[in-house]
Design goal:
Oligomer: single chain
Largest sheet: none
């Protein structure tokens, strides 16, 4: 399949696809409601990272360092989401940022981004179903974990195989559980800090305890940036949902505008409460990083408030968070594969849909890949762990692709004489937003394994930066075979708003 970018051919295909995706058999259906997309955007912001590993940021960099890292990454993610919002409302397609990379940068980059992202989600799905089994074994310790993992995968497959509204409704309620838990946590935590109902008042003494608020200096804060960045992974899925939204021009901006306040409320305030109630020297803060639900910062705070069954309650909440992650992963990866097939970057069978608008072949391929990855963990932990580590940077790479696509799209849009009033949604503080996102993501990626870089430990570097190498190989390989070129700004197809509806 040769694809070169003397643009009209490849870009017109994408415009046509955007305009046709909501029609009948052979295409996805626009059945996701605004409340679904708002909750999916919110659910993408709240993962197990907040419930389990957030305490390690405070332990490593102190309360001030942890807060600084989450605020900085939160601001960056907000700008990134507004960039995605501008693109997704202008051209709402299921391929999302892979399609934008192809259209606004280089078809080879779209090919590389799409396949790398699909691979990441399928491997993440295997990790998540393994974690789900461990959480269920908390209550049923003598049952084999693989049974629970397979059960979770089957349930998620059935949800995604029904209708897109079934996926949206499931995600709505799973996200609601997470939101309710955090609100209760914040109310109880603030009451303990201020001495309301809980005596004596804890106050803010832990912010000045020993070396607090900043511990370990700049290197410690940099290492915490990585943890904070991973916590926000998945927010970009809202861009994928635009292709199946009833009204992307309304739903996507609403979801993205709310992201800033949700990041502030759920992440920054949660970290503040944890830092105020638990000293950074507490070994319990690191214990949750090993998957010990009893050491989750949320569990510790609830226990101090007198909730005897705190560990069991938080285990249930984290389980719903894992189910949400598997559910979202199956959706996002199947739609990414569907989008790749639509753009002729994947076998045509993956572009076929059922009468209900489900890309079933893409979904089956995704679930089978997750199952194969999970099976590798049964037969050999070393290869399984290598896969998990090797795909760890994919989310940051996807973010760079989004920021770069938006940066070039806006430049081309202005160069070709278009007015910003033609866009349904405007990103915030362009060009600062996409530039900040690109710079921070590059810093986070480069800082992932500084010791190996300094010592030139090639084996460790190969594992840590495998995602980067994979994207480069996919990009250069596709470019070599198909002789693609970077799309020139004056030739770029920046249409799409009218044909996308």
């Amino acid at each position: 399949m040769t694809r070169n970018t003397s643009n009209a051919a490849s870009n017109t295909n994408q415009s046509d696809r955007a305009g046709q995706e909501h029609h009948g058999y052979g295409s996805v259906k626009r059945n996701l409601k605004t409340r679904h997309i708002s909750m999916i955007a919110l659910g993408g912001c709240i993962g197990t990272g907040l419930f389990m590993t957030s305490g390690s940021t405070i332990s490593t960099a102190g309360p001030g360092g942890g807060l600084l890292a989450y605020i900085a990454m939160g601001v960056m993610v907000y700008f990134l989401m507004t960039s995605l919002g501008e693109l997704a409302t202008h051209l709402p397609v299921s391929g999302s940022f892979a399609a934008y990379s192809a259209r606004y940068v280089d078809p080879a980059l779209g090919f590389a981004m799409g396949w790398d992202y699909w691979l990441n989600w399928t491997i993440s799905g295997a990790v998540d179903i393994s974690t789900a089994a461990l959480l269920i074994q908390y209550w049923l310790p003598h049952t084999p974990g693989w049974i629970w993992s397979l059960l979770v995968l089957v349930i998620v497959f059935l949800i995604n195989a029904l209708t897109v509204s079934a996926f949206g409704e499931t995600e709505f309620w799973l996200s609601l559980i997470k939101v309710a838990t955090i609100i209760v946590f914040l109310v109880i935590g603030m009451a303990m800090i201020c001495g309301i109902m809980f005596q004596p008042a804890v106050g803010l003494k832990n912010f000045t305890y020993k070396d607090a608020p900043f511990v370990g200096g700049f290197p410690a804060i940099m290492s915490v940036f990585l943890i904070a960045g991973y916590s926000f992974q998945g927010t970009e899925v809202v861009g994928v949902t635009a292709g199946e939204s009833e009204n992307p021009g309304k739903a996507v901006p609403k979801a993205i505008n709310d992201v800033f306040w949700r990041i502030l409320l759920f992440y920054v305030l949660s970290i503040f409460v944890i830092a105020a109630l638990i000293p950074y020297t507490s070994p319990n803060l690191l214990g949750a990083s090993d998957g010990n639900i009893a050491m989750s910062p949320f569990t510790l705070v609830f226990q101090r408030a007198g909730l005897a069954s705190a560990a069991s309650v938080m285990n249930a909440v984290v389980l719903t968070s894992i189910l949400s992650a598997v559910n979202t992963g199956a959706y996002a990866s199947s739609r990414m594969l569907y989008g790749l097939a639509k753009d002729h970057y994947a076998p045509a069978i993956f572009a076929k849909t059922t009468k209900r608008g489900i890309p079933l072949a893409a979904l089956v391929a995704t679930v089978c890949m997750s199952l194969a990855t999970f099976a590798s963990s049964i037969f050999g932990q070393s290869f399984y762990m290598w896969l998990v580590t090797a795909t760890g940077l994919t989310g940051f790479i996807a973010w760079i692709g989004i920021a770069l696509s938006h940066f070039r799209f806006r430049r081309a849009f202005k160069l070709q004489g278009h007015d910003l009033s033609e866009l349904k949604y405007h990103s915030k503080l362009y060009p600062l937003g996409p530039v900040l996102a690109m710079v921070l993501c590059v810093i986070v990626i480069a800082g992932q394994d500084i010791p190996s870089l300094l010592s030139l430990n090639w084996s460790h570097m190969a594992m840590t930066y495998f995602s980067v190498v994979l994207v480069l190989v996919l990009y250069l390989g596709f470019k070599f075979v198909n002789h693609t070129k970077i799309v020139r700004l004056k030739d770029m197809d920046v249409s799409g708003a009218e044909s996308a509806r």
